[in-house]
Amino acid sequence: MNLETSSEQFNNKTLVDLEKTVLSIAVHSPKACFEILTQLNKDDFFLKEHGIIFQTINDVSQESRIITLTKLIEKLETTKKLDEVGGIEYISNISGYYITDEGFEDYIDLVFKSSIGRKLDKELDYIKKLRENKVPIDEVFLETQQRILDIKTDVHKDEATEVKEIIVDVIKKLEDLEKNQEIINGVPSGYSELDQMTSGWQKGDFIILAARPSMGKTAFALNLAINASEYNKGVAFFSLEMPKEQLVQRILSATSKVDSNSLRNAKGLTPETWKRIFASGESIANMNIVIDDSPGLNVLQLQSKLRKMKRDFKIDICIIDYLQLVSSISSRFESRQNEVAAISRQLKKIARELDMPIICLSQLSRRVESREQKIPLMSDLRDSGAIEQDADIIMFLYRDAYYENKNANFDSAGTTDETDVIISKHRNGPTGTIKVNFMRNYGKFQEQSKK
């Protein structure tokens, strides 16, 4: 068989021969059989009969681990599928395709790519039917995006790894950390005590930052973005509530230490103030922070945008403001709680797939306000207990001053409040509380001076 032939150019006979070759190798080569069974599934085969044979080979492997032609035929007879796949004569014909298992990886790849092509053609036909039935274009886009993204474009690789291989990487990482005298191997938060607890935001982690309204969630998230950019890390910031101009104005206030009210109304700006504004403006222009303020994003749109940002802007970390404003692509959920749970799971999946930390802001329920002790708990997370399960890190912001004088202006000048950053859950490290100072008029969180 000519392996240089593109899977797109296969005629049906060539594809059938290719599938017979893969199945014959699975029967006769124990070494190749494992790879074939883990990297393909029955739906990847063009002929239904071949899918049934593949699944039967898999079943025999699960039961006895050793595949033989006799065991395969016996299993097909037991399940009453032997006649359905062409009988003993057809199984024998497939067996005759075995010569060697050399190059079986290429055969797997070609079968899989042919499968992708058929799945894509099927979805295109489905989309055409939606258009013919006058389905609203917005619904077509959402449905299309979901179905196309559901098509896996990479051969499944077995993720099981022997511990002797993993330990080499673990020790190498320890040696590198010792050599660099550096505890941070993730994206730095910019707060030394927080980085000591987390070693930086880790790739694939889903991090929840939660607090009551006006506690400073967005301000703290912007501080994290600014700090990460100062370490030459790329930041994607999805703002589903606040327009990008306001976000950048807040960044300008935090970096220039110019009162946010003054920046809003341009009053009381002295030559010295303007000097700080221009200096900060130049600094901000060099930050690799990419802002998307599209309202009403669904989780698939967010995934698509983030994938493109990572490719085009070398993004290392994503921040989403905030979880309860992200929508799902389905309207079939029985409750908002179930919908948020699905979104939370999907965001965790995206963090793993794109190999980057995702920090997602979240609201807390009002039950906090009804308690005498106002310090937030994980059970206070709004809309879904599933958030607690999905998140690798759950952080809360809490400051006594918020409750001592709730009528105080959030941006009142000259006010600095001690704020607790509470890590209540940390899947791979310690929990605890660090204290920072929140400079309300600048929207800046600053580490407390060490005593």
Automatic annotation (TrEMBL):
EC number: 5.6.2.3
Claim: Nucleotide-binding is one of the keywords in the record: yes
Matching Pfam families: DnaB, DnaB_C
Record keywords: ATP-binding, DNA replication, DNA-binding, Helicase, Hydrolase, Isomerase, Nucleotide-binding, Primosome
Biological process terms in GO annotation: DNA replication, synthesis of primer
GO MF: 5'-3' DNA helicase activity; ATP binding; ATP hydrolysis activity; DNA binding
Domain SF4 helicase: start-end pairs: 180-451
Catalytic reactions of this protein: ATP + H2O = ADP + phosphate + H(+)
Enzyme class: isomerase
Record GO cellular component, one term: primosome complex
Family: Belongs to the helicase family. DnaB subfamily.
NCBIfam families, per database record: DnaB
Biological role: The main replicative DNA helicase, it participates in initiation and elongation during chromosome replication. Travels ahead of the DNA replisome, separating dsDNA into templates for DNA synthesis. A processive ATP-dependent 5'-3' DNA helicase it has DNA-dependent ATPase activity.
Protein name per its UniProtKB record: Replicative DNA helicase
Biological classification of the source: Bacteria, Bacillati, Mycoplasmatota, Mollicutes, Entomoplasmatales
Gene: dnaC
